[in-house]
Each structure stands twice: as structure tokens, then as C-alpha cells.
Amino acid sequence: MNVTKNVKFQKEVDVDKGPTSQMMDTEDTQNVTELALALAKNAIAAAIKSMEEAENPIKNIDWITQGEFTEERGRKQIEEFISNWEYQGRWLHYTEFLKREDVIHSFHYIYCVHWSIPTARRPIARTTASVYFTIKINTNKPPDTPIDVSYVFESHSCVHRPGMTHFQEKHLRDIIEAKYILMNSNIFQFNSVR
């Protein structure tokens, strides 16, 4: 009889302990399964990205060195880089040098590439999209150092670097469409005032 009381007492103590080891094993198994699933998804995404990059590699050019740099050579290099971008033939662009900024230990040469889609009906486009390039020349680096190039799309804050991202024509279309919407909404407002 004493033995039976001890078994009952032991069962009551086990119930009061909280989660059993079997429940803890189930939770651990779920955590491991979730982790494995997340790792598998990341591996698949990385493999897909790798395959896409192999089929469509990011294009870049051999940029000149700081010692070879002039304003005109910088403009020509930007034109050469843009010639690697994939976009529909209806787009036209023009690259111009805007200004040189003196910054501590470097000079920033700013260029603007204006993009538009002229048509037979409107040979001079009403709106353009701009891409701003910055070529940074660091005065503390030797002349054989390649120039540092970055660019941003008008109204975007993401800074791109050559050879790091694919050009997406969609950025240009979005800028043009946003300007058309803005222009048309203002015309509409002016007409409603009269």
C-alpha cells in the first residue's frame, strides 16, 4: 500500500512540474523544422538569383583612373556605361556635365543624363527623366586608382554603383508617368478655378 501511495504522489509531482519533456521535445522539433524551412527558402532564393545573374550578368565597363580623368572623358565613360543598359529603342538620352563640387580631400563631378521618349506627334517630349551621376576623385589616392562612380534616379534616394545592380527601364517610366500625372492634375485644378 505504501508503494501505491508513492506512485500516486510521484504522478502528482510530475503534473505540477509544468511542461513535460515530451512537450519540450515537440516545441524543439517545431523550432528546428521552422529553421530548416527558412534556410531552404533562402537557399532556393539564392540559387534562383544566381541562375538569373548567370543568364543576365550585370554589365559594367573598365572605368578610367583618376590620373586619366577629365570632364569630357568622364562624360564619355558615362555614355559608354549607359550603352550597356537594356532599354527600348524609343528612348533617347543626352548627357551633360553640370558642376564640380570641392569637398574635403576630393572633387565631385556631377553629370545629368536626360531621358525622353519623343514621338512623331511630339518630337520634343513634354517631360524627361533624369539620372544623376557623380564621379568622385579623391585627392589622397594615387593617380592609378579607378574613379569612384555612383548614380541616382531623379526623385529616388537609392544610390546605385556600376556593376552592382541591373538597370531597370521601369525607373525611367515611373518618373515620366509621375510627371504626367502631376502636370495633368495641375491643369485640371486651373480649369476648375475659372
From TrEMBL:
The GO terms describing molecular function are: protein kinase A regulatory subunit binding
| Organism per entry | Balaenoptera musculus (Blue whale)
List the InterPro entries hit by this protein, alphabetically. Answer: AKAP (IPR053084), AKAP_28 (IPR025663)
Q: What is the lineage of its organism?
A: Eukaryota, Metazoa, Chordata, Craniata, Vertebrata
Q: Which Gene Ontology CC terms are recorded? A: cAMP-dependent protein kinase complex
Q: So which domain of life are we looking at? A: Eukaryota
Coiled-coil regions listed in the entry: none
- Pfam families this protein is in? AKAP28
**Protein name (record):** A-kinase anchor protein 14
